[in-house]
Design goal:
The complex is a heterodimer of chains A (about 110) and B (about 110). Chain A is built from no helices and 12 strands. With about 110 residues, chain A is mainly beta. The termini of chain B are far apart. Classes of the chains: A mainly beta (about 110), B mainly beta (about 110). The interface between A and B is medium-sized, with 21 and 22 residues.
Chain lengths: ~110, ~110
């Protein structure tokens, strides 16, 4: 079945540091890939997505590229801010349903 | 922008009581879902619903759980006899092939 494995946290960075959160997937077919963000006490917000191989999703300085050859969708940001502190979930959807990774908690310190 | 609306935002119930969590999906979406997130843990798939029937359910979705689309706009999750371990955030989502998934802001269920 479909599944997502993402880097375990927590991750603690200083402001302006470079961020990478690794995500790999297992799927039959050609799923869409997503990153969701959950700020403290809030629900799930779509951060970015990619629907086919080699697509790059981007939003708010975050990027992720759908790599079919490595079955990966790693999240990157060149310079994190304190306001980026949240839990980040990688997810996969084959249209029938969506499966989430375990989540990675990011804390950015001033 | 269209939203998925969930009510209530927080519900406290006594163990053994029945609860109904309500969701209003986006009106032209055809696929509906419930997910659960126990505090600090991963988001877990519960059930998907299409064409007025369950299309897939996880092992978490046992006989205590049921879903219904009673009136063409609401999509409800019922937990028949709540247990302490049912305390979690419950997210509703709806999906269309064109627009993708939209999640509601969740209902926090606390069983005491």
């Amino acid at each position: 079945g479909n599944s997502v494995t993402q880097m375990e946290g927590p991750v603690t960075l200083s402001e302006e540091a470079f961020l990478t959160i690794n995500c790999t997937y297992t799927a039959t077919g050609y799923p869409s890939l997503f990153w969701y963000v959950q700020y403290p006490g809030e629900g799930l917000q779509l951060l970015l997505k990619a629907t086919k191989a080699d697509d790059k999703g981007s939003n708010k300085g975050f990027e992720a590229t759908y790599r079919k050859e490595t079955t990966s969708f790693h999240l990157e940001k060149g310079s994190v801010q304190v306001s980026d502190s949240a839990v980040y979930f990688c997810a996969l959807s084959d249209h029938l349903d969506m499966r989430f990774g375990a989540g990675t908690r990011l804390t950015v310190k001033p | 922008e269209p939203e998925v609306t969930q009510t209530p935002s927080h519900q406290v119930t006594q163990m053994g009581q029945e609860v109904i969590l309500r969701c209003v999906p986006i009106s032209n979406h055809l696929y509906f879902y419930w997910y659960r997130q126990i505090l600090g843990q991963k988001v877990e798939f519960l059930v998907s619903f299409y064409n007025n029937e369950i299309s897939e359910k996880s092992e978490i979705f046992d006989d205590q759980f049921s879903v219904e689309r009673p009136d063409g706009s609401n999509f409800t999750l019922k937990i028949r006899s709540t247990k302490l371990e049912d305390s979690a955030m419950y997210f509703c989502a709806s999906n269309s092939p064109e627009a993708g998934y939209t999640f509601g802001s969740g209902t926090r269920l606390t069983v005491v």
